[in-house]
Amino acid sequence: MTNAKFYRNLVCAGLGALALGYVPLSHAFYAQLTPPAGFTAGAINTYNSASAATAASIELGRISANASLSVAGKSVSVPAKMTIGRGAAKVAAAAIYLHPGLRTIAAVATWLGVAGFVYDVASGLWKQVDPNAVQSDGFVYRIEYFGNAEFSTLSEACAFAASEMTKMNSPSPINAVYVTESCTATRWVAGMRWHTDTQSGYKPADQTLTVTQRASSCPAGWYTTPGGCVQTPPMRTVSQPEFEQMVPDARPMPPELPGVVWPASWPVEVPEIQPMFVPTGAPVKNPNYDQSKPQTGENQPYVQPGVKIDPANDVKNPFQVNVQPTNRPTANPTGSTDGQPITEGTGTETDGKDDKPKEDKDERDLCEKNPDILACQKVDTDVEDGEIPKAEKAVSYQAENIWGGGSCPADKYTRIGGQEMKVVDWTRDCQFVRDYVTPVAFVLTTIIVGAILLGGLKP
């Protein structure tokens, strides 16, 4: 009884395991793709080029790679496209700054050219035209009463005068303003314009400073620098933070740039998962196929079972997909074995428009599920008598020994002291079994069988 219960439980456990294993192929469910090598999810999704090696490609600012999913015990590659994120321009600029050899690539050179950056091979530094460089107008300027200091521009001379006047009238700040060809100094005290009280009323304390000028040794259009007068615009060294900020600001990143510049990691948007049909078995006959109608669309002689993989469009779980068991009509009796991307709008079999989701509850009859079994075949019973094969056979009967037949083993002999002696007398033993043991065993067996039958007939 214990053994019977054990085997029954074992069978039930096996059926339960089979049922659980069949669930993914019977009902729609969510699954999580294994992201492609190099992808990291977080506050900002990234894609690492070093991890991806040659497993990805970039075209028009999008990374193409393959995620994976196990379907019916088989690993399937699912295409995914990741658009380069908004912060990619700064990432690209950092990569170019650290790897100046990239500057010779056409896309990189064009990008840097608009921003006005050049690389000084001699110093190993990135440089840019100094936006504060002073261009000479052909004269130098001096403010009387403030020494013999000369300046390349009138604004520099006025600023110097204001600084000196501020020192003289401290703590009352003075702001110098250039007016026509002279400097007008306006005193300000405690945040208000300072003035004097006269008989005629209030008089603003404005003072016009005398400016003198003479021809400069630096021609007009040239640049004055601490090192002297130069004809070309002076350059200044650019730090990495400035480079990373100013390059993207100068021009949006060209879409072809990610294909030639591989930084450590690209920021990427939520992946776009390619819908797919993955076969899970060989094609079977289509019970709804009508030979009298054109073989198009749903009316195909076979259907292949499989699953349809659709993106779930979950931002928090970018590689989550919806897996829907599906039947695909097909004219091919062998079908396909690999996953096929669903190409909507193409009008082909891979369009997916004729795929039919499997119902959770299978209400098909036996022949719809198994159209090839013998029980579902039509048998032609309208046969003429003359076509039925006939034969005559002679059959004889004879009484059977109820105790059964059989034979005993040969007796065993051995030679001892030159004499042959019988060691085992099988003839005697077998005779005892036939005469006594067999009838008793037969009677006991009959009684046991009768008891079982009688017990089964009780209500």
Highlighted features:
4-stranded antiparallel beta sheet, disordered N terminus, alpha+beta, 4 domains, 459 residues, 7-stranded antiparallel beta sheet
Counted by DSSP, the helix tally is 8
**Radius of gyration of CA atoms, rounded to a whole number:** 50 Å
Helix-residue proportion:
10-25%
SS-based structural class? alpha+beta
Q: Strand percentage, roughly? A: 25-35%
Low-pLDDT runs of 5+ residues are: 1-25, 189-204
Q: Tally of extended strands?
A: 30
CA distance, first residue to last residue: 21 Å
Q: How much is the average pLDDT?
A: 76
- Domain unit count: 4
Q: Give a quick account of the main beta sheet: strands, pairing sense, barrel closure.
A: 7 strands, antiparallel
- Apparent shape: elongated
Question: Care to describe what's here?
Answer:
With 459 residues, the protein is of the alpha+beta class. The chain has four domains: 10-36 and 275-357, no CATH class; 88-133 and 233-267, no CATH class; 134-230, no CATH class; 413-457. 24% of the residues lie in helices and 30% in strands. It has helices at residues 2-22, 49-52, 88-98, 106-115, 154-168, 240-250, 366-369, 426-457; strands at residues 29-32, 39-40, 46-48, 57-59, 62-71, 74-83, 117-120, 125-129, 134-135, 139-143, 174-179, 182-189, 192-193, 195-198, 201-204, 206-209, 211-215, 223-225, 228-230, 235-237, 265-267, 272-273, 276-279, 284-285, 302-311, 320-330, 340-341, 356-357, 412-416, 419-424. Strands 1, 23, 24, 25, 26, 27 and 28 form a seven-stranded antiparallel sheet that branches. A four-stranded antiparallel sheet has the order 4-5-6-22, with no helix packed on it. It starts with a helix and ends with a helix.
